[in-house]
Amino acid sequence: PYIISILESFVKTFEIQSTKPHVNAFIDHIREFFESFRICGEAPVIQKIIEIFSAHYFSKVKDVFENEDAVFVTSYS
Predict the structure, then answer these.
(1) d(Cα 55, Cα 67) in Å, to the nearest integer?
(2) pTM of the predicted model, to two decimals?
(3) Would you give the distance in Å from CA 74 to the centre of its chain?
(4) Residue-level pLDDT, tens digit, the chain, 77 residues
(5) Which positions ≥6 away from 33 have C-beta within 8 Å?
(6) Helix/strand/coil (H, E, C) string of 2-29?
């Protein structure tokens, strides 16, 4: 759907780079992401947003988490 492609484009605008230790960098990235908009909606909407963020994060930083699912679970927590 069109909305998903807009969300994917929005997520891709976030630079995922840092010289900090991995966990601290992840926390900074996810905080920056969630501070950039207001989440409202039901759990499936929030899940989709985090799913797309997790895929983007894992595509940029592969040495912190073992897979996208690990990024997703940590982000959703």
Answers:
(1) 9
(2) 0.83
(3) 10
(4) 788 999 999 999 988 876 666 778 888 888 999 898 888 778 888 899 999 999 999 988 877 889 999 999 999 88
(5) 11, 14, 53
(6) HHHHHHHHHHCCCCCCCCCCHHHHHHHH
